[in-house]
Specification:
- The strands form four sheets. The chain has a six-stranded antiparallel β-sheet, sandwiched between helices. Strands 12-13-11-14-15 form a five-stranded parallel β-sheet, with helices on both faces. Strands 7-10 form a two-stranded antiparallel sheet.
- Helix 5 runs parallel beside helix 10, helix 10 packs antiparallel against helix 11 and helix 11 packs parallel to helix 18.
- The mean pLDDT is 93.
- By secondary structure, it is of the alpha/beta class.
- The chain folds into three domains: 108 residues; 218 residues, Aminoglycoside phosphotransferase (APH), C-terminal lobe (Aminoglycoside 3'-phosphotransferase, Chain: A, domain 2), CATH 3.90.1200; 181 residues, P-loop containing nucleotide triphosphate hydrolases (Rossmann fold, 3-Layer(aba) Sandwich).
- It has 18 helices and 15 strands.
- The protein starts with a helix and ends with a helix.
């Protein structure tokens, strides 16, 4: 009750020591933030989550001071100090009179329009140049910040293991819901296998000074592209999370850019960082650390989704983000792979294939697009030929699949994961791609999309009315396609997907299924 009373008081402008307009409010799983016109007041929630403990007033004061001290490294001039929240009679205010109720970190308010996450949302064209600048800042920071060869009396390898085990333990309540048991199992096995194979490298990098007192929470929401750039909100609450291999620190931002579907920016940042640092050795560690960072974000959002004191909309959005982050963590477990879709028109093959390709960084090839290109047509051109007529004749369709296979083989030879999006209703065509995977030495999966017939018919009608899809599939062709469909047999090893389910749910089901079947790691 006292927390809610304090919260309501801090929503009133008159309880702040400055003239301001209406107070804006946001919250995370561990903080409440109050925005005046010029400042931000950040209060730590009185929680003990195992990996952090803000349950006492003394602890909150200590960590408020730590937050100010540590963030001056990459964001000087922004963190102003620690303010006291006091009660005098019935009034709760920020000031120097009355009983101390809590503490708040005080910051200058940064321009939100210059936040990296906002600039990504708006597609700012200057971002590639900023990635080069960020790389330079981070290389300098990683060279200047303190070297740590023993963290809390443990080697970095031990700390990495402890951090992962803590993640698994604290994420266990989500298993069967946001996080499936199969997904949790796949991550556990990946971590065990990776640390066994790379333990000598992890230990050697610690001995050579690559383990530093870093930022620990380096993602787009904590970067403001002002002049100079401000990188803020590092981890203050647990030194074990902040001290890490520089590869782990960089991996957070790379993962976040990829999560936001900007692999191009991640590539620029990484390439420039490697060029300036000369640390090409970190490449073999990045998938592991990116998976860790995504898993942590999934856990954090999962915790917020179950926080009964948070608003319902906040909790629902946190649950959605949590599953997306867990999916991202799984995406880094993939070796080069060949995936094909299979199913009737309108079952959602392209929706799943495109989202999956973005998630795992696969090359995506679409038969509909290839068909139109071979015909010299714009992708948006609608073709209303009858079944197996015109550019859908058996001969033209074979040309389309031949070209699709050619593109696939070329990408596989360069070591890329490939998703070939087509109906693949004939078994010989599926087998041709299976042979291509075998020749390339990569796992092969068939994602078979299924959908209730009534929902399927409705989708086809809606798609035709909107006229926005590259596919020319429509209801009157569906019956003919069904008659010609060689439904995959059990021995083809398909992964069957009901596309009436939520897309993120399906991705979360597909990813561990493929990982468990492959039995190999990147």
């Amino acid at each position: 009750m006292a927390i809610q009373t304090q919260h309501q008081a801090l929503l009133q402008a008159e309880n702040f020591p400055e003239t301001t307009g209406p107070i804006e409010y946001r919250e995370t799983h561990v903080s409440r933030l109050y925005f005046t016109d010029r400042h931000v007041y950040k209060i730590k929630k009185p929680v003990n989550l195992g990996f952090l403990d803000f349950s006492t007033l003394e602890a909150r004061l200590f960590f408020c001071r730590e937050e100010v001290r540590l963030n001056c490294r990459l964001c000087p001039g922004t963190y102003l100090g620690v303010a006291e929240i006091r009660r005098k009679g019935d009034q709760i205010h920020i000031g120097d009179k009355g009983e101390i109720m809590d503490y708040a970190v005080v910051m200058n308010r940064l321009p939100e329009e210059r936040m990296l996450d906002r600039l990504i949302e708006t597609g700012d064209p200057t971002l590639p140049g900023h990635m080069s600048s960020l790389a330079r800042i981070l290389v300098h920071f990683h060279k200047e910040t303190d070297i740590v060869r023993i963290n809390d009396r443990r080697s970095n390898l031990e700390v990495v293991r402890i951090n992962w085990e803590e993640n698994f333990r604290q994420s266990a309540p989500f298993a069967g819901g946001i996080l499936t048991e199969k997904a949790l199992k796949a991550c556990r096995e990946f971590v065990g296998d990776f640390l066994e194979e790379y333990q000598s490298l992890v230990l050697r990098r610690e001995a050579e000074g690559f383990v530093r007192d870093g930022h620990g929470d380096l993602h787009a929401e904590h970067i403001c592209l002002t002049e100079p750039v401000c990188i803020y909100d590092c981890i203050e609450f647990n030194r074990r999370f902040r001290v890490a291999d520089t590869a782990a620190d960089l991996a957070f931002l790379l993962m976040d850019l990829e999560f936001r579907r900007r692999r191009d920016l991640a590539a620029i940042l990484l390439n420039r960082y490697l060029e300036l640092s000369g640390d090409g050795e970190m490449l073999s560690l990045l998938p592991f650390y990116k998976s860790y960072r995504a898993f942590v974000r999934g856990k954090v959002e999962g915790i917020l989704s179950e926080d009964r004191s948070a608003g319902e909309n906040t909790r629902q959005e946190a649950a959605r983000l949590s599953r997306r982050y867990f999916n991202q963590a799984l995406a880094y477990l993939f070796p080069p792979t060949l995936i094909i879709t299979c199913g009737l028109m309108g079952t959602g093959k392209t929706t799943v294939a495109r989202e999956l390709s973005e998630l795992i960084g696969a090359r995506y090839f679409c038969s509909d697009q290839i068909r139109k290109e071979l015909a010299g047509l714009e992708a948006s051109t609608r073709i209303l030929d009858s079944y197996e007529q015109g550019i859908y004749s058996p001969e033209f369709t074979q040309r389309t699949y031949d070209r699709l296979l050619e593109c696939t083989v070329s990408a596989l030879k360069s070591g890329q994961t490939v998703i070939a999006d087509a109906s693949f209703i004939h078994r010989p065509r599926r087998e041709a791609f299976r042979r291509a995977a075998a020749e390339a030495g990569v796992p092969f999966y068939i994602l078979q999309m299924t959908l209730d017939p009534d929902i399927l018919a409705h989708r086809l009608d809606r798609r035709e009315n909107l006229g926005r899809e590259i596919s020319d599939g429509r209801r009157e062709l569906l019956g003919d396609q069904k008659e010609h469909f060689d439904v995959p047999s059990e021995n083809e090893g398909t992964i069957i997907i009901d596309t009436s389910r939520d897309l993120e749910y399906n991705l979360h089901w597909i990813l561990p299924e493929m990982i468990n079947r492959s039995g190999v790691r990147p």
